[in-house]
């Protein structure tokens, strides 16, 4: 049976009243909000889960890259230190204009250390760095730049280094020519454990504590040592 215009108006009015009643009902509105919120939260949870997985993958990749970078830095440092194997650094020798550092060193080795080192044992030598006041073990201060010397053989270098104790109290100090990384580790080790308990040999840093000997080449290894 067809609906008349009047009946249609009555139906529309009734529907409008019901809709108004629903939208003024706190219970209905709460249910709508709850349903919409649930859908939004589900979408957010799904997106958050995807983002979390991506972050975990990136963190793992970053961890692997940091490890690779650390290993690469260690390998580079090892190679650089090995390239300095025949070198020593001499502190405390007075600096004069137009000096010949080879002759200065040969005089030190012969007349102060009584070693048989010939000119052919020295590949090259030169002053390095800026002229600073150097605090020596004898508490004297000498203004001069250190000399880096490269020997033609490890044996000649070793002969000098093993006899550096002959220069005790002379104001002259002989040290290994460490990489910047290892020089920083050595400085930290001396500050932490006192220079009497710290020394170097063949580019490695030795620390003696309570009759136990530690060997380190990096700050990470140094940090693991507890007094």
TrEMBL record:
Protein name: Uncharacterized protein
Lineage: Eukaryota, Metazoa, Ecdysozoa, Arthropoda, Hexapoda
Keywords: Coiled coil
Coiled-coil stretches noted in the UniProt entry, renumbered to this chain: 41-85
Superkingdom: Eukaryota
């Amino acid at each position: 049976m067809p609906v008349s215009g009047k009946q249609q108006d009555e139906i529309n009015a009734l529907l409008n009243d019901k809709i108004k009643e629903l939208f003024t009902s706190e219970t209905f509105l709460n249910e709508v909000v709850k349903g919409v919120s649930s859908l939004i939260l589900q979408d957010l949870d799904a997106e958050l889960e995807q983002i979390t997985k991506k972050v975990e993958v990136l963190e793992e990749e970053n961890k692997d890259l940091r490890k690779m970078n650390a290993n690469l830095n260690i390998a580079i440092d090892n190679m650089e230190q090995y390239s300095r194997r025949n070198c020593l650094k001499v502190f405390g020798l007075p600096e004069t204009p137009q000096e010949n550092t080879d002759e200065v060193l040969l005089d030190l080795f012969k007349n102060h250390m009584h070693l048989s080192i010939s000119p052919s044992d020295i590949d090259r030598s030169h002053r390095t760095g800026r002229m600073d006041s150097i605090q020596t073990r004898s508490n004297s201060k000498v203004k001069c730049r250190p000399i880096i010397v490269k020997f033609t053989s490890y044996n000649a270098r070793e002969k000098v280094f093993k006899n550096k104790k002959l220069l005790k109290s002379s104001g002259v100090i002989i040290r290994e020519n460490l990489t910047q990384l290892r020089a920083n580790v050595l400085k930290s080790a001396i500050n932490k454990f006192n220079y009497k308990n710290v020394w170097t040999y063949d580019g490695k840093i030795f620390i003696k504590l309570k009759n136990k000997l530690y060997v380190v080449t990096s700050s990470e290894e140094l940090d693991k040592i507890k007094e």
